[in-house]
Design goal:
flat; single chain; two-stranded antiparallel sheet; 4 strands; mainly alpha; two-stranded antiparallel ribbon
Length: 238
């Protein structure tokens, strides 16, 4: 006759003196003497993941990253003013600030991935604009750099919509990745054509889109097909 351990509910033989799962001692009429060390986590007990453990030290990480980035920048600034009277070190300073934002923004808003992506794109846009200002001509940041970043932002937003959709699936995510690559490709082609030739037209991006579009459709087709076939679903682990 089998009985159940009153602590972990595993089925055990009646005459055993120790639960094989939680190692609790069973005496008399199956009354339990609690073990010295709990052999399994309590119900609903959660443990911090690697990301949560890392975020506990984000203040220290920001300080270290600021030290690593800004100390060499300050040295370059001092050398520039000592020997050249200032000039090229501004590029180093702005680059150091931009690199520090690449660390600070994800650490500050790590629970909001879409906001992190948009802030990083905005930071990159500001960095490109400042670099363009340094030569005094303003020739490429607003006509080439910013449009490219806007296309990238659009692709990230489309991918984010697919990831937060309650009924997302691996096939849908794969199809969205291919669609995002097409968006970036089209945006790059349009932006470069307008910047170089002053016309809005599609050229080489049509070849890339014609190759990526069938892949996106294939991913959707496989997803819908596998959702109706339990054997293939188990085989592909979808």
């Amino acid at each position: 006759m089998s009985v159940f351990c009153p602590r972990c509910a595993v089925e055990i033989v009646e005459d055993v003196a120790k639960c094989p799962l939680c190692s609790s001692v069973l005496v008399g009429d199956q009354k339990l003497l609690p073990p010295l060390v709990q052999a399994y986590p309590r119900e609903f007990e959660t443990f911090p993941g690697r990301l949560e453990r890392l975020m506990r030290h984000r203040g220290l990480i920001n300080i270290i990253s600021a030290f690593v980035v800004f100390v060499p920048a300050m040295i370059c600034l001092a050398v520039d003013f000592m020997y050249a009277g200032g000039g090229w070190s501004l590029v180093v300073i702005y680059t150091a600030i931009f690199l520090w934002t690449l660390v600070f923004i994800p650490l500050a808003f790590f629970r909001l991935p879409l906001l992190v992506a948009m802030l990083l794109i905005a930071s990159a846009g500001a960095y490109l604009f400042i670099l363009d200002m340094l030569d005094g001509q303003h020739t490429w940041s607003m006509t080439l750099g910013w449009p490219l970043l806007l296309w990238v932002a659009l692709a990230i937003f489309v991918l984010w919509l697919g990831l937060v959709w309650p009924k997302k699936s691996p096939g849908l995510v794969a199809a969205l990745i291919f669609v995002c690559l097409q968006i970036i490709t089209i945006g790059t082609d349009l932006s470069t054509q307008y910047f170089v030739f002053g016309v809005v037209t599609l050229t080489w991006s049509l070849v890339v889109v014609s190759a990526l579009m069938p892949l996106a459709l294939l991913a959707l087709l496989l997803q819908f097909s596998l959702s109706n076939s339990s054997r293939l679903k188990r085989f592909f682990h979808w």
